[in-house]
Amino acid sequence: MTAARRLGDLRVANSFAGLPEDFYTRLATRPLKAPRVLHANSAAAELIGLDPEAFAHPEFLEVVSGTSPLRGGQTLAAVYSGHQFGVWAGQLGDGRAHLLGEVLGPTGAWELQLKGGGMTPYSRMGDGRAVLRSSVREYLASEAMHGLGIPTTRALALVSADDPVIRETVETAAVVTRMAPSFVRFGSFEHWAANRRPDHLRTLADYVIDRFYPECRGASGAQRPSRPNGGSGPEGYRGTEGAIPVPGLVSGDPYVNLLQAVTERTAELMAAWQVVGFCHGVMNTDNMSILGLTLDYGPYGFMDGFDARHICNHTDVNGRYAWHAQPSVAQWNLLRLASSLRALVADDDALRAALGRFEPVLLDGMQRRMMAKLGFADWRAGDEQLVDDLWRLMHEHHADFTLTFRQLAHAPGLTNAAPERVLEDLGGTVGPTLTPFIDLFTDRDAAGAWLTRYRERILAEGRPWQERIDGMLAVNPLYVLRNYLAQQAIDAAKSGDVSEIDRLMQLLAHPCKAQPGMERYAAQPPAWANGIEVSCSS
Ligand code: AMP
Ligand code: MG
Q1: Is 444 exposed, middle or buried (0-12, 13-18, 19+ CB in 10 A)?
Q2: Can you tell me which atom of ligand 1 is nearest the CA of 128?
Q3: Does ligand 1 have an atom closer than 6 angstroms to the CB of 93?
Q4: Angle between the 483-494 and 499-509 helix axes, to the nearest 10 degrees?
Q5: How far is C-alpha 338 from the geometric centre of its chain's CA atoms?
C-alpha cells in the first residue's frame, strides 16, 4: 500500500457515528484566526498511511486546524459522565474535542480528534479552546510515552493561532490532532448507567467488545485480548510482554470478560507509569481509556527527584492523584466501571472476580519491569527487600528518578566498560559525565551501602556483564520529558521557534538511546525548574 499524498486521499469510516444519536452531537469546528502548522509528526502519519509530504498541502492545515472537516468524516462531540476527584460530576463530554472520523490505515483504524476546535454542547463553562502551552505539552507527552513503550493516544499535528484565550493570563489558541483506536472512557459507560439506559450501555459495551475485545465473546480459555495499536518501544518492555502468566478469560459472560480485560490492561498501564516516574495528575474516570491507553494529558509530570508522594497537579491539594496513589486510584476507577456494568451483569461475584485480576497483574507487571530495570535475570529471595530499599532510599534522598536507574548500569565495580564507553552510554563524547549513581543521593554512605548489597546480588547471579548492562540500558531511559524541558519548548514555540519541539520529538522517540551532544537533555534539572507549577487550567 503506498502512502497517501493528501489527507483527503485517506480511507475514512465513521463507526462511532454509527452508534445511536444520543451518544454524541454532530457539529462543526470553529475556525481560528491565522492558524499555522507548528509541527507535524511523521511517525503518527505513517500509522495512518499518510506521506509526510501531505503536511505541506493546504488541505492538511485546513483539517488539523478545524477550518474544514475531514473528507468522508462526520464531525461530532461525544457525551460521557464521570467521577472527578472522587465525586460524581454528572454529565461531562467532549467540551473541546471534535471527532473527525476514523482513518482506515495500514495499521488498523485510527480515530482522528481535534482538541481545542471550539465549543460543543458539553463545554459547560469552558470556551472550547486549548492554549499553546498545554497543547505543546500534550503533543510532546504522547509521543514521549510512546517512545517509552507505554500505551497512549498519539499526536499527529500541532497548530497554533492568533486568537486570544483567557486563562490565568491571556494566552493564544492551539489545536492538537490526536489519534487513538478509540477515545471511549470509563465515563462513557458510567453515563448510560447513571441515566438508566441499559439499552445504550449494552450497545456501547458491544461496540467496544466487537471492535477491540472480540475475545471476550469466546468461551472460557479464550485468548487474552491483544494490545491496541500503539504500545511498542524499547525492546526490554516489548520483549517481556509475552511472558506474563495471565489466565484466559474465564467467564461465559462477555461483559464480565470485558471488565477483566480492561482491568488487566489498566493494571499493566499503572505498572508502566510507575516505573518511569510518570504522574498523570487528573485520573478522573472520564480520563480513563477503555483501551488502557494514557489519555488526556493535562498537568502530568515526569518526576525529577523522587518523592513517592509527588503531586504534579498543584490544584490537587489533597494528593488524591499523587504518584504512590495512582494504582489504587485506577482500581477505584475500575470499581466505578464495574458498578456501571451491574446493569448488564446479574452476577456480582463474577464482576468482583474480574476486578480481582488488578492486583496480580499490577504486581507481576511491576516485578517484571523492576527485574529488567535492575538487570536481574530472575527474581530471587531477598529481591523484594532490595527493591523496596532502593525506592525508600530514592524517596528519602530525593534521588533523580531517571538517572538513578540509568546510572545503576554504570555503578563502580559493576561495569567492565572503558570510561569512554561509559561516557558514550551517557550521551556524551567529551566533557564532564553525568552525576554518578552515588552522588544522586544526599546521603552517599546510605547509597553506597545499598550499592554493596546490589553488587553482591548481581555477582551471585553471575549473568554475563555486557548482557546485563545492555539490557539495563535498553529499558532505563536517559531522556524523559522533564517539566522544564517541555517549558523550554513552550517558551521557544511562543516566539515561533519550533526547534526545541523538533529536538525533543526526535530524542524522546528513542529515550534509551544515548545521542552524542545531547548531555544537556539528560542532566538533572536546573534550579529554576522547581518553580514550575502545572494546574488543570489548560
Ligand atoms: P479535563 O479535566 O481536562 O479532562 O476536563 C474535564 C471536562 O471539562 C471534559 O469534559 C472537558 O472536555 C471539559 N473541558 C476542559 N477544558 C475545557 C475548555 N476549555 N472548554 C470546554 N470544555 C473544557
Ligand atoms: Mg478529560
Answers
A1: middle
A2: 20
A3: yes
A4: 150
A5: 23
Produce one character per residue of 100-133: b if its CB has 16 or more CB atoms within 10 Å, e if not: bbbbebeeebbbbbbbbbbbbebbeeebbbbbbb
126 C-beta closer than 6 A to ligand 1: yes
Per-residue pLDDT, 241: 33
Alpha helices, H only, 39-159: 42-47, 58-64, 132-147
CA distance 402 to 424: 17
- Whether residue 62 contacts residue 76, with contact meaning beta carbons closer than 8 Å, is answered with no
* Residue nearest to ligand 1 atom 5, measured at CA: 95
Average pLDDT (188-206) is: 98
Under 8 Å between Cβ of 227 and 316: no
Placement of cell 529515550 in the chain: 511
CA 104 to chain centre: 23
pLDDT tens profile 80-110: 999 999 999 999 999 999 999 999 999 999 9
What are the φ/ψ torsions at residue 414 (nearest 5 degrees)? Answer: -130, 10
Q: Is 94 in the pocket of ligand 1 (CB under 6 A)?
A: yes
The CA distances from residue 215 to 38, 97, 219, 252, 255, in Å, are: 41, 30, 9, 11, 11
The mean pLDDT value for 10-33 works out to 98
Q: With 70 as the cut, is the pLDDT of residue 58 above it?
A: yes
83 CB under 6 A from ligand 1? Answer: no
The residues carrying an active-site annotation are 286
| Residue located via cell numbers 548492562 | 469
Of 79, 83, 92, 138, the residue with max ligand 1 atoms within 8 A of its CB, to mutate for a pocket test, comes to: 92
Condensed to tens digits (0 to 9), the pLDDT of residues 99-143 reads 999 999 999 999 999 999 999 999 999 999 999 999 999 999 999
User: Could you tell me the distance, in angstroms and rounded to a whole number, from the CA of residue 185 to the centre of ligand 2?
Assistant: 9
Q: Report in angstroms the alpha-carbon separations of 440 from 480, 489, 523.
A: 17, 26, 11
Of 325, 328, 327, the residue nearest 309 (C-alpha): 325
Residue located via cell numbers 552517599: 444
Please say if the pLDDT value at position 243 is more than 50.
no
Locus of grid cell 492523584: 321
Measured between alpha carbons, how far is residue 522 from residues 191, 269, 403, 454 in Å?
43, 25, 8, 24
Long-range contacts of 219-224 (CB under 8 A, 24+ apart): 219/252, 220/248, 220/249, 220/250, 220/251, 220/252, 221/248, 221/249, 221/250, 222/248, 222/249, 222/257, 223/248, 224/248, 224/249, 224/261, 224/264
The pLDDT value given to residue 218: 84
Q: What is the Å distance from ligand 2's center to 116 Cα?
A: 12
Calculate helix-pair angle for 358-374, 326-341, nearest 10 degrees: 150
Instruction: Find the ligand nearest to 130 CA.
Output: 1
